[in-house]
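User: Before I run my own analysis I want an independent prediction to cross-check against. Here's the chain; please return only the structure tokens and, at the end, one sentence I can use as a sanity check.
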Amino acid sequence: MRANARVLVVNSGSSSVKASILERGTERELLEALIERIGDEEAHLSLSHEGQKIERALPRADHEAAMQALVEELRKLDLLEDLSAVGHRVVHGGERFSSPVRIDEEVRAVIRELARLAPLHNPANAIGIDAAERALPELPHVAVFDTAFHQSLPRSAYLYAIPFELYETHGLRRYGFHGCSHEFVSLEAARRLGRADLNLVTVHLGNGCSAAAVSGGRSVDTTMGLTPLEGLVMGTRSGDIDPGMLPLLCELTGRDLEGVMRLLNRESGLLGVSGLSNDMRELLEARASGHERAKLAIDVFCHRLARGIMGLTAALPRLDAIIFTGGIGENSPDIRAETLARLRVLGLELDAPANLEHGRHTHGRITTKRAPTALVIPTNEELMIAQHTLETLSRSEV
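Assistant: Structure tokens:
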């Protein structure tokens, strides 16, 4: 395989496809593309390449047509012939996949089977894989799983306290997600701090939020569980709730279980508490203007986040650093400061000027030099997927 091999990274959702091309060696992102509103009259492709912006309407395009349109644009830009592989983000790999795998018929079948554990994600991932393979049949395709990084969790961390037979027979356990992000920032933290034996809590904050305890580069606990609904408060997801609330929600709202699950996944979290928005930027602006429920939503978010971080430290022999990443984690000094203020017991001291600059001039550090420390490290899930794709193919060539 060429030293400067290029990988097309594909992240297929139910109504959108994100894609990028990364080059090994330079780690450059040569292209970024987004196809939105798939199946809708207003479906369209947006593409950016070396300063060039391309917009293309794709009315009522399905995943197949969307992928074909992307490939046509790659051909026009002379990017197609240099591709070495396609790496696909797949949300749920269950216990079957603890590392990336080259996609074949058996792998495709298991991804579809695991849709019972990730009904909102795996079906869309599978559709995207099928469309990409038909559009680019000459290239090897590799599946990189969000759950794989957390397959190192010990049983004490991944088992639910339910009848053990439900785990043995049906795989009901905690799996964790955002694995590529947690893995990337933990590796980058080790590089920046010059140590491989770090004990970290990595915190991915976006519309979806999760945190992980990482010891020596291995995930040993995490906040998300069987599905991405468990854990921290998120943009529209509730995070942890009392399961005894489910029948009561059905009774009080008049919804069936499917409707209540939609409420918890799509209508809760920051949106549900604030009644205003799932976007943290909007909520921070609203709070500054005196919006009480925006303030309440932020307070709940930061309290639950701090509690989640503290809980994860129980899985570590010591705490060397907390890593903030994701859209909110990288860009919101207020959320970082308010979360760290709730972690006073850990002895963290905020460096306010560094925090306001997102750690840009302090190698990411936003606390004083006392240990433990806190850093801001921008994530790069696409690069992680590209690297895993090439590593998987290199192993298969040996």
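Sanity check: The chain has a mean pLDDT of 95.
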